[in-house]
Specification:
The chain is an alpha/beta fold. The protein has helices spanning 9-21, 23-30, 87-97, 115-124, 141-150, 170-177, 190-195, 197-201, 224-234, 257-269, 293-303, 307-321, and strands at residues 61-65, 101-105, 129-133, 152-158, 183-187, 207-209, 238-242, 274-276. It has one domain (9-321): Alpha-Beta Barrel (TIM Barrel). It has an eight-stranded parallel beta sheet with strand order 1-2-3-4-5-6-7-8. Helix 1 (9-21) packs parallel to helix 4 (115-124) and helix 2 crosses helix 4 (115-124). It is globular, with a radius of gyration of 18 Å.
């Protein structure tokens, strides 16, 4: 794991250790239980205050959000440097949407310095929170084991903003994390996903594709990247996140009808290989152009009208992928 002048390996392990041993204590101090039914709440980096029309099941899981904190320095490769988005801010989103479980994804901003994510995971507690880290080939097996104890269940390759990882690292890292039951998460433009087809197709672990696979609209379903991801899902090699409806849409809010069509196609072809995420605090969007998270959740419900399949995507699939008890 890459270190910085103000970051030692001992600092990193201290944060990891606090995540593992402090989960129960921090949880009891901070509290992380939320009501299943959404409540009208103001949320930073989200338009509106109204709850969604969609009622969520107990243990509904947001499989993709970030935490930002200026106490931790940005990596020199970072291109996205959002404002602070704290645990307390995200808890307001949980209250508004009616979410129970969450998965914190290490953002590109901090490179392989996972302290911001690990610290936030410790505050939420292991009962309802998991994480996805960013590492490179310098990470040690001991660090991987420590992160597993803290609740990390995957590693992320952000190939959209670039930075500290590259596709050629995937095979060797996948072999090392396979014994832990982790997955490899990919955020990349559709062409990059397609160009690296042979890598994703031959890993010994699941690949999880972010944000619908980033196929350009209109006619995203005609993109060969969609066919690739669907094929990998149906062969039990991949998951896709039904998230980021606002990224490639040409229709826009409140319906996001074109993104809904893509999400619906994935959910119909392999419902057991789909998960959902908010992508809060929506770091790719300007501060005057943040989406309404209630609209996004209702758009997901439009894509998956069956309550039984929605519950699978919101509860059962995340429990399996992220090893929730």
């Amino acid at each position: 794991m890459t270190t910085k002048p103000n970051q030692t390996r001992r600092d990193m392990l201290h944060v990891i250790g606090a995540s593992a041993v402090g989960a129960a204590g921090l949880q009891s101090l901070q509290g992380c239980a939320v009501q299943p039914m959404g409540q009208a709440t103001e949320v930073r980096y989200s338009l509106g205050t109204e709850p969604p029309k969609t009622l969520l099941p107990v243990n509904a899981t947001d499989c993709h959000h970030h935490i930002y904190d200026a106490r931790f320095p940005a990596d020199k490769t970072a291109t996205l440097k959002p404002k602070d988005a704290f645990v307390a801010d995200y808890r307001a989103l949980q209250k508004r949407l009616g979410l129970t479980r969450n998965v914190i994804v290490q953002p590109s901003t901090y490179g392989t310095d996972n302290r911001v994510t690990l610290e936030a995971m410790a505050v939420f507690g292991l009962q309802n929170c998991r994480g996805v880290a960013v590492v490179n080939t310098q990470v040690t097996d001991e660090e991987l084991k420590q992160m597993h104890a803290a609740g990390v269940r995957g590693i992320r390759f952000n190939l959209a903003q670039g930075g500290v990882t590259s596709p050629d690292m995937a095979p060797s890292l996948a072999k090392r994390i396979a014994p832990l039951g982790w997955h490899l998460q990919v955020n990349a433009p559709a062409k990059v996903i397609l160009d690296n087809k042979s890598i994703w197709s031959n890993l010994p672990i699941y690949v999880v594709f972010d944000h619908l696979g980033h196929m350009a609209q209109p006619n995203a379903l005609n993109d060969p990247t969609y066919a690739l991801i669907k094929d990998l899902m149906q062969k039990d090699k991949a998951y896709v996140k039904l998230s980021g409806f606002y990224m490639e849409t040409k229709v826009g809010p409140p319906s996001y009808a074109d993104s809904v069509q893509v999400a619906s196609a994935y959910a119909q072809s392999a419902p057991e290989r789909c998960v959902w995420g908010s992508d809060w605090p929506h770091p790719t969007e300007g501060y005057e152009n943040k989406p309404n998270d209630s609209y996004l959740l209702d758009a997901f419900a439009q894509a998956v009208p069956s309550e039984q399949i929605r519950n699978k995507i919101l509860v059962d699939n995340p429990a399996r992928l992220y090893q929730f008890s």
